[in-house]
Amino acid sequence: MSLLIDRFGREHNYLRISVTDRCNLRCVYCMPEEGVEFTDASNLLSFEQIAEVVRSAASSGVTKLRITGGEPLVRKNLDQLIRMLASIPGISDISMTTNGILLAQQAEALRDAGLNRVNISLDTLSSARFKFIARRGELRRVLEGIEAAGRVGFDPIKLNCVLLRGVNEDEIGDFLQMAYEQPLHVRFIEYMPIGHADENWRKQYLPLTRVLEVADERGLRYRSRDDVSGSGPSDNYEIVGGRGSFGLIHPISDEFCKRCNRLRLTADGYLKPCLYWMEELNVRQALGSEEAMDALLRKALDLKPESHEMAATLAGGALSHVPTDRRMSQIGG
Fold it and tell me: Is the pLDDT of residue 18 over 80?
């Protein structure tokens, strides 16, 4: 089969797979404090169904997978899915995004099953602030998960920090120092209006130019680097003399849609061409037929717009498509 190339010439070799919309945290930028209406377990794609979608995608050039949620580690026996996916011809890289709460207990099994890399969400280094941002859980357990990730050999270990104006922007320097002292790749991420483009989002949005300003204020010397495995849309910087690095993911202030190479599979079985827009396709309609699944993947590419227009959302301008009403946890990021 031919490669997955959309009408704007973008080749897609990356599939993000959400395995659950449930999460053991309630992060302020991801879902309401009371949570959302979770998908019944019986309506989640089975591991076998996920593997079927991946086999079709791999036959058309998809080589990279990322396991997401919700929080993927709340799905039981996740290492079994990793093992199934790692055995599919053509798949060369499997990573996972996790909040780290359950990682210490599962890191070794996941690594043995074929997981290559982890991204761990960490928005603060303060235990008290962690309670405010995540609303649940303990910072200590996330730090234990980071330690376990290094111990079992995940490389690189990336930390995802969503910056919120007036909430954690005063910790930018602390995260940069962490990247200087430890062999970690800290990625600062702009707050995105997924499912809630409200006034509160506009107030808390912070452009990532602030990160470079703080680095300069602290006298840190940094230079661009392009050798961070699986860096995707991140602009990456080496800290001169340090052990780690940092990256900037700025979908709003400097969108990277022109080089987008990804599709998303939701836990309840929908293929999303773009994170921000409403369009999605039910993969269950194509299960059992390789030809039908390939056609559905290509239909998703036909639906994919040129850009997500989040900057226009920030400015309150008119949009060309209808934004999704799903929250980030319901899509998988």
Answer: yes
Residue 237 pairs with which residues in a beta bridge?
A: 224, 246
The CA distances from residue 22 to 36, 65, 68, 192, 248, in Å, are 9, 20, 11, 20, 27
Q: How far apart are CA 248 and CA 6, in angstroms?
A: 26
**pLDDT tier for residue 277 given thresholds of 50, 70 and 90:** confident
Three-state secondary-structure class, residue 158: strand
Separation between Cα atoms, residue 280 and residue 331, nearest integer Å: 10
The tokens for 260 are 């987008």
Please tell me whether residue 291 adopts helix, strand or coil conformation.
Answer: helix
| Measured distance CA(76)–CA(20) in Å, rounded | 10
The DSSP symbol for 281 reads E
Burial class (CB in 10 A: 0-12, 13-18, 19+), 223: exposed
**CB 327, CB 31: distance < 8 Å:** yes
Q: Phi and psi at residue 232, in whole multiples of 5°?
A: 55, -125
Q: How far apart are CA 306 and CA 171, in angstroms?
A: 34
Sign of CA dihedral 216, 219, 224, 226: negative
Phi-psi bin for 298: left (phi > 0), alpha (psi -120 to 50), beta? alpha
pTM to 2 decimals?
Answer: 0.92
